[in-house]
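RETRY 2/3 - previous attempt timed out on the joint model. Re-submitting the same 506-residue input unchanged.
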Amino acid sequence: MQRRGFLAGLAAFLAPILGLPFRRARADGPPEQAGGAPPHAAGKPAGKPRRFGMAIQVDRCIGCTRCMDACKAENNVPKEPFFFRTWVEQYTIKTDGELVVRSLKTGNGKPSESVPEREIMRSFFVPKLCNQCDHPPCVQVCPVGATFRSPEGVVLVDEERCIGCRYCIQACPYGARYLHPDTKTADKCTFCYHRTTRDLLPACVEVCPTSARIFGDLDNVASPLTRFKRMKKIHTLKPDLNTEPKVLYSDLDGVVR
Amino acid sequence: MKSLLFRPVPEQITRLSLAFALLASGVFLVRAHAIPQTWLDREYHVKSTLEREANRPRRFAGAQACTECHEDQVKEKAEGNHRTLACETCHGAAGKHVEDPTETKLFAPRLRDYCVLCHAYDPSRPTGFPQINPALHNPLKPCIECHKPHAPVPPETPKECAACHGEIERTKAVSSHAALACTACHDAPDAHKVTPRLVRPTKPQNREFCGKCHGPKSEEKKAPRVDLAAHGERYLCWQCHYPHLPEGK
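RETRY 2/3 succeeded.
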């Protein structure tokens, strides 16, 4: 009896001290599930948030790097050639079966120097960007909860909360993140959140000269994106990782990693 | 046993609990006041990030904005081969220009180096996408002299074969076949100029074709004569003599 009384008294004493700071933490739940609140949606009636997605038609990409330049201009990405939110890879399969992959540099309109033309069996461009996964590994590993999925399914980084530990950069299987040299925080594609929430297209989609990129609401019944989903054979990058990407590819060669 | 709770509390316990209470209230005060709310409140942190991201400045104005003033160009572009391009693909981000059209003017590429970003030949580009070799295709001439950038069409199909087969033309020009037109030996249908790979010109098929000029019964006065029956009868003429530069003058 005394022990029970002692424990009850102790609990009553400690409750205000321990309980208060941890109550919020318990109510939070894992970061991915915290998107229930109505989104910040400028100019959009409250309701079910849209689910942004992008389709990429690989056989249309001409590797002109307009998307890379536009993304840098729109999103304050540093001009250095190794910082990207979106980038284009040139895949070349040689006649002897060897695979050569190189990333295009911005403003590069030159033919590829890497492989002599007579050795090429097949060559093509693959635009890449953050896949805005439904199960994002980068969100799981963030030790401070600075990265999360928005109600629209876009993975965002809180630059005030990010401590720049680079865990997410390591965790991303697509290499879509980099450490911004000015803010020293992780930076990544936001599907141009500031444009798409205002019914504008992302900068890369806007400038693509061959309509290789299609942007839209994955839940929309009739849109170019849903038509693409219906009519094309859809591929995603690294589907075996179960990240459930929302960037969909068509005509993707099997060698693309 | 029962009297345990009601005994006078030993002094060390009092001091310890006092120290513990001070520590606990200190932690509580720091969490409540010193640490910014953004560090603790997840909802606040999500909301502030969404707001910050949504309110970033927009540099690209979007295709709709251009139609409001530049109707003619937009219409011209919509009917031409550049209809899938946005104005901002070539002219750059127009956000500032839309806000103040007189103050900020947009860049208009007029030199060769911009067009070749898309139209230079690259083996990785999809088949059928119009590409040129910038070193061979009218070098140093600005593209916009022949191609209207808003509605580009291939300029008039060249009539002479040399437009594409320049190397052969230049070789032939210094040869003894200089006076012969290409069509003397090749029958080039008109469709070859439009779809050069699908419709191909003919080539001579047999020795008798060369024999029309070089045979013993030829009416050509200057052409060297050979006896077709005796001269290299097992071979076709062009297996030894390159027709565009035959040896001997």
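The two ends of chain B are 132 Å apart (CA to CA). Closing ticket.
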